[in-house]
Design a protein that fits this description.
Elements (H helix, E strand, L loop, with lengths): L3 H7 L1 E10 L2 E6 L8 H8 L8 E7 L3 E8 L2 E6 L9 H9 L13 E2 L11 H8 L6 H12 L2 H11 L2
Antiparallel strand pairs: 1-2, 1-3, 3-4, 4-5, 5-6
Length: 164
């Protein structure tokens, strides 16, 4: 049987980390094998200790995304779709981290911190509205988030490099 990192990495559209150094946004690809679970992803994100931590943006199989923000020992996260936990170990890990049950729901609903980047200009209400847009794919949502908080061009360039 494949290990969790192989299961998750097989369906990763892209994985990038965004962080600010001296007030300037930097965006770099993340090795997809390092996305085993939320703890492993958090450890990976701590390698980039920018001014105010780092933000991981990961899109899975054009189905859902994870937005993970670390600052020191604190990890905050947003899972775009709880129903992904039925098929994806990393999504189950997110629900476990949030201390939420894995449910057999077909309805798409986010879980976690809608205000994860509110201090950067995208508040919880706007994040909720973005997640409710059924016409957008996860990569488009993450691109919109990146643009709204100030690193859209760097995100687009890094995603080109990070996509398998």
């Amino acid at each position: 049987m494949a290990d969790l990192s192989e299961v998750n990495a097989a369906g990763v559209d892209f994985a990038v980390v965004a962080f600010r150094e001296e007030g300037v946004w930097q965006v770099e690809p993340i090795a997809q094998q390092r996305i085993e679970d939320i703890d492993a992803l958090s450890r990976e994100l701590r390698r980039w200790p920018g001014d105010g931590g780092s933000i991981g943006l990961v899109s899975f199989d054009e189905d859902f995304f994870l937005l993970v923000r670390v600052l020191g020992p604190i990890t905050r996260l947003l899972l775009s779709d709880v129903s992904a936990a039925g098929d994806w170990p990393v999504a189950r890990s997110a629900l476990e981290y949030l201390d939420l049950p894995v449910v057999d729901e077909e309805e798409q609903a986010p879980a976690g911190d809608l205000g994860i980047v509110s201090d950067l200009g995208l508040d919880a209400m706007d994040m909720g509205a973005l997640l409710d847009d059924d016409d957008l794919y996860p990569d488009e949502m993450l691109g919109d988030i990146a643009s709204r908080i100030g690193f859209g061009a760097q995100f687009d360039q890094a995603v080109e490099v990070a996509a398998p």
